[in-house]
Structures are given as C-alpha cells and as structure tokens.
User: What shape does this take?
Amino acid sequence: PQEQRDFYDAQLAIAKQDIHAANKSNMEILSIITRLRQACCHPDLVAKRETSLPSAKLDLLLEKLEDLQATGHSALVFSQFTSMLDIIANALQGNNMPFYTITGETPTDKRADIVQAFDEDPNPATFLLSLKAAGTGLTLTKADYVFLFDPWWNPAVENQAIDRAHRIGQDKPVIAYKFIAATTIEEKVQQLINDKQALFDQVMDGATESALPGRLTANDLKALLED
Assistant: This one.
C-alpha cells in the first residue's frame, strides 16, 4: 500500500540522517537497520502504538492463511519480532481463525501441551512461532505450509524453522514462503547474505544468530542504506 511505502521512505530518510550524524558503532547501526526492517513488517512496530496504516505483508499473509484453512491446510508462521506475532494473532482472532503461539517467553513446560493441542485440533490452524522458539526441537508435522514473515541474517536458522514441519512423520509436501518487501532494506540484507554466504555458512547454530551481524563491518552495514 502507498501509505506503508510513504511511511517506510520517511523512516529511510531518518535512518540516513542518523547513520551519518556521528561515528556510529555497529550496534547503533544495527538498531537503525532493525527499525527499517520493522517498518517493512508493519508500521506499528516502529510507531510503538496502533496506527491506521496498512501492512502489505500482513494483508498477504491473512489472504494466504484464509485460503489454506478453507482447503484444510495448517501453517507455521515465523517472525523474529514477538510484537509482530501479537499483531498477527489479533488479526487472526478478529477473523475467527484458530491459532496457537509459542515464543521465547513461553514456559518450556507449557510448550508440549500447546504442540499437542495444535496436533489434536480437528480443524486446520495456524501456529505462530518466534525465532527463539524455532530451534527448540519442536515437531509440527500437522502443518504443511511455512511462512517466514521477515528474513533473518542467518539462512541456517530459516532452514531450521522450515524443518519444524519437515520432520519424521510428515506425509505431505512442505511448501515454504519467504516474505521480502520489494525495494527495501530487506532486499539489501538478502543480497548481503548472498554476497557473504561463506561467512554465514560458518554459523549453523541458531543460538548464535544475534552474533552474526557483529561479524560484518560498519561499511557492510552502512552500504545497506545507500541508494
């Protein structure tokens, strides 16, 4: 939607000013980049409040999930932003679409019960999961569709997320969608990952995901904001 594009462009202009205002550390640059990545997902993540601005990704996701549930398919939806999962959950609830959620904040002793409830639900449903929950050994073979709502720095973690559905006992093909907002920071990050594939291949453990951007130089990160 044009409103979201205008919002993103305004955030990009602010980011470019911020990044050149003074010598920024890698962590400060990453914070600026994260703000832009959040704007790609939903303006509310940046505004820190509910706005009337639309989200192209959310609209597309809901459309896909409605079609899947209508045809008897269950899906996993991954985001690294738990606040985005909250927004998706509210949208699903508003559309009377059944869903389950596990994030890094979900108590470990509760997770098996939530997975069992999802597996035993007689109706197709959606499972919302955070990045931190992706590598916990969950088996979710009820789902045969996977949505990566926002791209991650480490491709190995994305593969690990998809593997939640692609486990022993899965008797259906698993189809995965990766949402990348066109002509935004997300495309730039994806290109950087492709260019630095050897670097990212060195890190296969999802627990070290947060350390990956630290292996990039300040120039690598600043280049993401260049036209």
